[in-house]
Amino acid sequence: MVTPSGLVVLTDRRLARGPLVSVVRAAVRGGASWVILRERDLPYGERVALFSEVREVVPPGRLIVAGPDPLGGDAVHLAEADPVPEVDVGLIGRSAHHRLPANGPSTEDYVTLSPIYSTVTKPGYGPALGPERAAVLAGDVPWLALGGIDSGERAAECAAAGASGIAVMGAIMRARDPEAMAAELTS
Length: 187
Hints:
CATH class: Alpha Beta
Structural class: alpha/beta
Number of domains: 1
Strand content: 15-25%
Radius of gyration: 15 Å
Domain Thiamine phosphate synthase/TenI: 7-172
CATH architecture: Alpha-Beta Barrel
Largest sheet: 8 strands, parallel, barrel
Number of strands: 8
Number of helices: 6
CATH superfamily: Aldolase class I
Keywords: Thiamine biosynthesis
InterPro entries: Aldolase_TIM, ThiamineP_synth_sf, ThiamineP_synth_TenI
Distance between the termini: 25 Å
Protein name: Thiamine phosphate synthase
Shape: globular
Function: Condenses 4-methyl-5-(beta-hydroxyethyl)thiazole monophosphate (THZ-P) and 2-methyl-4-amino-5-hydroxymethyl pyrimidine pyrophosphate (HMP-PP) to form thiamine monophosphate (TMP).
């Protein structure tokens, strides 16, 4: 099973400095390996259309849909309270905040742990775990560091602590140059 690693971009069209597909394309050019399509507030048809557009600019098999409906794809990333999808998917991730689900993840292939650092996107959301505490919480579960990772230095701290990758939203969505920011975070 291939789990997300490297730079994983979470989308947010409201934060994006340009058209979402253009921002994602630039981030992939800069080194983003995976994309998690959020946009859960869109009507179903619009979300499916956006999924199709984003899939065109993401490496094959590297687009994950937030929520239990994979929209025709093969990977989902679930919020803490989301049910497991009713259809078979090849990859399931789950968000975790301050602790893993009771008894650890069961059907999940990986978790995101957040917030690692204080975050501009969700001020007051925390307290920040820090990379070392996140690593202890994750144990043997593959994990992505999420929250406040806005520099190569912070990305390196997470990698040194054992994160499989880093998941970022604001640093890419708000960047004047998403390609350059992705390159900095992957370096």
